[in-house]
Amino acid sequence: MTMNRRDFLKKTAALAAAAALPEVAKADEALKAIEAVAAEDVQAGQAASDASGKLIISAPMLQNYAETSMGIAFAVSDMANGYVRYSEKPDMSGAVTVKCGGFRVTDMNEHVMQIRLTGLKPATKYWYTIGADRIAYKGGYDMKITGNEEDSRVYSFTTAGKAANAHFCVINDTHAHWNTFSAATAKIANLAPSCVIWNGDATNVEESIDSQVKIFLMPEQGRDDFAAEIPYFFCPGNHDSRGMANRHLERVWMYRQPEERSSRDWDLGRNFAVRMGDIAMIGLDTAEDKLDTNPLFAGLFNSGAYREAQTEWLRDALQRKEIASAPYLVAFCHIPLFDPNPKSNPGDLDPADVSPDYRGDFASWQRTCANLWGPLLAKAKCQLVITAHQHRYRYDEPDKTRPWAHMVGGGPSLKGGGHATVIEGRVESGKLIVNVHSLEDGSIQDTHSFAPRRKR
Ligand SMILES: [Fe+2]
Ligand SMILES: [Fe+2]
Fold it and tell me: CB 3.0–4.6 Å: which of 51, 225, 311, 367 could bond 372 by disulfide?
């Protein structure tokens, strides 16, 4: 997307204002300025609409990569009931049809079709097509199918599992910056990983499902099918809970199936512990960057209990056989679990996130999560935690108190010190190699390798 003169002037002014501040405040102010402009961009652009009369208006997106299940979501322009046909054969012979929704009723709606395929074989390639029935709904006794549309393309995906190719990419803090997202998806298409972890702050403040559809299913970039054959995970960032629509993000980005977790973890639909070749991947949600007690949020957020619930989930997930036996353990979450700067706001400054000893009024890193999850990850010999949020790439070597390495992905811009990154991890010659690709100039700006945590 090209930037018009108004956008250019706004962004330049915002960055110039931030640049004039003292050094300690600069990073926080620049982050706020960029995110405020990004939020306006999305609202000004608004959203999923289609003048062609087509019912299916996006390519499918593979959501929540897993060993024996796969989520498939796509956008529609009218009341519809969607379905997926899938087969182990490229000619679609013996295809099985799965409709959206679960028991009792199908999930008829006019925005997003979500179909989760279950009972799949691990590390297996499947071919699939998508389709939807157009529904005329006039009341509880007056509904009919008035048309059908199918995407003619046959797509494919490969499930996770011990025999899958151990290769991931991470993007973060895209904040609906379409030019950055476009560069990221081009790099990912080139690298062709088995999966992508979208590590939060995909959104800004979303008040409508249409703007969420635009961000996740119809982003303005050159590859409509960016997630049609490469599955994505989502670790939400603080922004992904803001705005009325984001309080129900699951309407656009589905939860895992209830049967994929215990009843205790019923509400933890986004956490993942998935084996991909020699890598076990753990997904956590650091939630808001403000305390639940911060008056700004009027007591309408519940991050504290959420983090503690995830701790119990994590403790059990790390002991699952396929996770415990993996040579490499990598965890992902949005807000950093470490910061070497003693002035960085740790997110636990009760009650309103401010203290004269720290800068800013929101969490720069998450000390509560680090205290809850860090020891469990250390005990499990986790080699690396990949985070985001600070809009500037950083690598923190392990130390005596923190045996896992810590990496922070870049920001939403294509230029400057906070430029965007694609972090790529793959197992090669008995090591986990992590390359950090700069989206400013395409170079590999940093690289690290990790030995197996135990003998295979
Ligand atoms: Fe961000
Ligand atoms: Fe963030």
Answer: 311
